[in-house]
Amino acid sequence: MPIDGLATQLRKGVIEYCVLAMLKEAPLYGGEVIQLLRTKGQILVSEGTIYPLLSRLRSEGFVETEWRDTPTGAPRRYYRLSRSGQKAVADFRAERFRFRDSVNEIFPDGGRQK
Amino acid sequence: MPIDGLATQLRKGVIEYCVLAMLKEAPLYGGEVIQLLRTKGQILVSEGTIYPLLSRLRSEGFVETEWRDTPTGAPRRYYRLSRSGQKAVADFRAERFRFRDSVNEIFPDGGRQK
DNA sequence: CAAGGAACCTTGTATTGCAAGGCTTGATCG
DNA sequence: CGATCAAGCCTTGCAATACAAGGTTCCTTG
Q1: pLDDT at residue A67 tops 70
Q2: Which residue from B113, B98, B96 is spatially nearest to A93, judged by alpha carbons?
Q3: Angle at the Cα of B86 (from A14 to B14), degrees rounded to 5?
Q4: Quick one: pLDDT band at residue A5, thresholds 50, 70, 90?
Q5: Could you tell me which of A18, A79, A80 has the C-alpha nearest to residue A45?
């Protein structure tokens, strides 16, 4: 597996909003985010990707956080979608569809293949 | 317009292959690449994006180049898709569909709108 | 008290897209 | 002839992202 390959570049600017979209359903902590990305989307991300990403979402106000103690060890920081985070997801959705259509115009046999 | 916004991140790793896909039809020089991206895909890119990108395609062997004089002024460097460039486009296509499906799994109401 | 696991964070690197500015060629105009 | 202009190409510096590697804290278990 290439350290920095084709798939890695495709992810840029997308994973962030995948996380926000998942938070729409329920608050999650870091480990759950990684697990859900893997099980729901076959998207494998490491902690080195997720934690800086979550930090940025927080500093941009897209999420709010809350510490919860656990019986099993270290406490967890749970992330919850904020109002402006909901708007960010909606904006991304629209932009994603626009861009997808653009690329489909350029690629021969746009997007209609299995 | 934000210097580095939502749309800019979405493009990463995609424009490169849009260019290769366009070269599948005919050899092009830098200015034509910029123009075609704009007219066919509504994708606005500047010279500062395209020329380093074309350089990289060349150093990776995805394209071959040829200088042609013009009657109008400076000569043009034309880019032609190589054999390995064709394979790169095919690989990208497959990876793009995979990733699209993954994201659709995560986003509520995946891709079926409008 | 040592070992280990769960959870979190930080640091450094590579890649990409982009703006700004510079260089070269040939035509045009004073 | 010299200056100006436009087309075409390239380089430099910056910001954002994904990632690996390594470190820290907390609690439990032996």
Answers
A1: yes
A2: B113
A3: 20
A4: confident
A5: A18
Query: What's the topology of domain B7-98?
Result: Arc Repressor Mutant, subunit A (1.10.10)
- Cα–Cα distances (Å) from B74 to B29, B63, B79, in that order, read 12, 21, 16
Q: What is the pLDDT of residue B104?
A: 96
Chain A residues touching B99 at Cβ < 8 A:
7, 10-11, 14
Domain spans, chain B: 7-98
Hey, are the CB atoms on A100 and B97 less than 8 Å from each other? no
Indicate if the pLDDT at residue B114 is higher than 70.
Answer: no
Instruction: Express each pLDDT in B9-34 by its tens digit.
Output: 999 999 999 999 999 999 999 999 99
- Tell which of A107, A112, A113, A114 to mutate to test the B interface (max B CBs under 10 Å): A107
Write the CATH number of the domain with boundaries A9-100.
Answer: 1.10.10.10
The residues near B81 (Cβ < 8 Å, ≥ 6 apart) are B20, B23, B24, B62, B63, B89
Contact (CB<8Å) A41/B6: no
